[in-house]
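Practice record 12: protein with acetyl coenzyme *A.
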Amino acid sequence: TLGPSVVDIRTFAKTGMFTFDPGFLATASCESKITFIDGDQGQLYYRGYPIEQLAEGGSDFLETCYLLIYGELPSKAQKDEFVKTVTEHTMVHEQLTRFWQGFRRDAHPMAMMVGVVGALSAFYQDSLDVANPRHREVAIYRLLSKIPTIAAMCYRYSQGLPFAYPRNDLSYTANFMHMMFSTPCAPYEPNPVLVRALDRILILHADHEQNASTSTVRLSGSSGANPFACIAAGIATLWGPSHGGANEAVLLMLDEIGSVENVPAFMEGVKNKTHKLMGFGHRVYKNMDPRAAIMKRTCDEVLAELGLQDDPKFKLAMALEKIALEDEYFVSRKLYPNVDFYSGIVQSALGIPVEMFTVIFAVARTVGWISHWNEMMSDPGMKIGRPRQLYTGAPRRDYVKMADRG
Ligand code: ACO
């Protein structure tokens, strides 16, 4: 809501004035009731509930989805109905499975995700009636149900494995692990500690207000575009290393550093701006990202469960974090670990390959994207997003015919 530090400049437009704010450093693009970040205190709330209570206090990913979409925690009956509906729509149209044949086996799974999720708009043309709340709800269910199936298919295709059909007797997250890891000879046996860890990753990544990918989904949705095409645009934006690609970049960075002895030299390079410390820094958090603290505890639990307490990557990550938290370069710029700093280590321990990390992020963030899209589409005062620019190009000049150009 508008407070003393917020200036509502909408009236400027009528006077011909506008503001210049590249990167949206000081501009709110919309009002939203979904997620609140207190960047100075390092706190995150979904619909008013602290992230720690949702991720570590008994909720699960699908309940968090219900909360984000509908604004309230479900009753037992509402949750059962929601879980049943999502679970029963996890299959994709058989025709869609042929899309993969058009991709190279070594294509990045995010490239496949952008293409296949965008293609859902060709299968669900009724979702074009975006003014109809019931049609929007159906699109939400379709996306939540089918995104894990599509994500797992991207992985299986890249491995040359047959697609695994969903299992309705498993939880959302256990079913995803089954679709990733089951083989005809060895069905995946869900380990509750590992399923819980992945479920927590999904909760922590479910929404984060107006980040680049969510803003993209809102902007494309504001033209009335098909929701599946809007989500494909969000996936494309998420892919970049400054956003969802950071978890993959963290693991590649840890590989490059190799061992704790090489940390000081690497940090010198960071300070000389040769490279960034991936998994550090955030546009909004100027304190510890609360998701990073939960992720670190989850990392501890998973490594203990798997007997990997001496995992060299975890030790290296902790050494980097310790140095960074004491170093003037990071302290003065308020650079703290973000959620992606430890999530890659957890995902590696779960057996998820590095190229799939951002895909898992997309699976989780789909609910945030679609909740924001739905909130925006429900607003009777919604306007198409149309940023302005400062033109810095050539002044008016006359066209010169080719023969006269010299
Ligand atoms: N390592 C080293 N220095 C950094 C880092 C970093 N990770 N992040 C910011 N800085 C420095 C910048 O060089 C700059 O220094 P200067 O003042 O001397 O020029 C200062 O900190 C401010 O940085 P900005 O780039 O202005 O911060 P911005 O808010 O634009 O960027 C971002 C935020 C993109 C997340 C950035 O911190 C970054 O690239 N981090 C690494 C990638 C990453 O982890 N991304 C994940 C984000 S969270 C998510 O998407 C889930």
